[in-house]
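Troubleshooting: if your tokenizer reports a length mismatch, compare your output against this known-good record of 641 residues.
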Amino acid sequence: MKGDFSRLTFDQKKHYSSVRMQQGRVQLDADWNEQIDILRHYLETQLKDLIGHSGAPDAASGFKITLVQNRDEISHTASSDQAAASQNESPEAQLPDFHISAGRYYVDGILCENERSVLFSEQADFPGAALPSATSEVRQYFVYLDVWQRHLTAVEDPALREVALGGPDTATRTQTVWQVKLLPVPETLPGGSGSAESEASDEIRPLLEWQRVIDQWSQTGGLSARRTASGSMLENRLYRVEIHSVGEKGATFKWSRENGSIIFPVEAIAADGEGGDSPQFSLTVGELGRDKLHLQPGDWVELVDDDGVLNAQSRPLFQVLDSPDQWHRQLTLAGDFPDELKQSAQYLHKHPLLRRWDQRANGLTQFDGGAISVDEGTWLELEHGIEVCFIAGSHYRVGDYWLIPARTLSADVEWPHDESGPLVQPPDGILHHYGLLATLQYKQDRWQVVQDLRPRFTPLSELSAVSAVENERQQRLLVDQVLALFRAYLGDVAAGAFQDYLTRIAANLFHSYLAEAAADLFQLYSSAEELEIGDVVAFAPESSAQIEKAKVQNASLVIGVVAGEMNADGRYRVVSGGRARCKVRGKIKPGDLLVPSATDGCAEKGESFIDPGTLIGKSLSAYDGADGAESGLIDIVVTLR
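Known-good structure output:
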């Protein structure tokens, strides 16, 4: 966060639960920012423990991926270039655009909200979203969510200013940015013959590739910081060291003594284009600053805008020429104004600004276009004896940053250390969180959503209601079983005389049944045919000892839903009461009663009248069958009737 902060003090290893105000004490920004960070950490950790790494609520599940098969569905707001590409490339070769459904989704406890269905290519917070070219040979993609926090000031969002007070720059904001992205899935995964990757199933192998990518993305750079005794007097500063570019020649970094918070809003651009060996252009800015916050000849600045930030683009640095014109708020920069920005008539609506950086060329550092080349394993001086060292073998991403508070009274920097010296620290940000949404694959001569990978969860209040209904059903079932036993031994007349008494006994037995055998609401059966998790099964008509996929013809013999793969003795685990994942077809909504369908092993919505013995259960989630798949898996409560 490039704000005007004194320092950022949150440390989850200290397990602080709150910040407490004391009377008559100095108020600091760091204390109240830490309170917000404590609360954020608590809420996100709690949600992650309850929901898991990611998940969508059943009642408002968002971010479902649906391919646009009909090109007339593409929004008229799509760019002319996209429209032309859509017309020139054949639908068989080109991955079609796809809808991202409205709703909510959680990634690492972070709430992501999508207020309306939007096309992949028209995401508000991902202006660089582009579909793969028709010439791409990739035939499978992961669709995933990239979630991170963006820091905004009144320059990026003028609505933050209070007009009633004359429009001062007061507090800043953090914004949750979500971006739906595509990741190619290679046809062959790393690992030779006999490896776990090569022997995994077709559904599991892509997930192994996803885990490999996540492990790679989790690798970060490392930095140490210190202050040598030879430096001059320090001021109270919050130094920021940030990776500027990453390329074949290595990485470069820039630094600021004000946490990169010295910015100047751009109001007009005059690209002079003088050519020659020293091209330059002029800018008009909203203000030029005062005292030590203003621009001086020789300063390095970065031209920043919304698109560049959201796409993590590394833009060139420019050097200030001559003294800025304070009256007209104009300054001249050395360098070529980016061509892609010249062509954008709407550029000034993207909140462009200049950000000042404080590095200067000296004999101890290698300068590269205004940034400093990363020389791993070498201590590099910033100023006033403050030195940083990048650790060898680090992995860098554009925008990675470290914060180094410097304090006058201690004549030192605040940096973790032990007896051996300063410790290596990972970047303070930007922290990205990733969640899988779906898998797209080109098969049967068209692109399809072959897997919806969004975990779904049911609110606790609804789970309680489901449990109550299921407990009542199980109690009635146990009562019937106890009465059947007594009838077998005593006969109908004797058992009937004791029916009320036996019912109370059965109710008491049921509580023991819940406490000791609630997990045993399933039985093991063998089958002559191969079954899958989610198959609706029934007793084979010729044998009550074996099961088969449920059909319309044997609907009254349904026994449950397959909940596990075949075990070592050749039997399947079949849930006959409770929650399970079930194969369904057709349009299903939560609460629908399910019966066997014309497709073997699948359930469908029952009609208003359901034949006795054919009810499978009640759906807990929705399925619309719009992806072109013959069937899908949803959560149901198995309640055989």
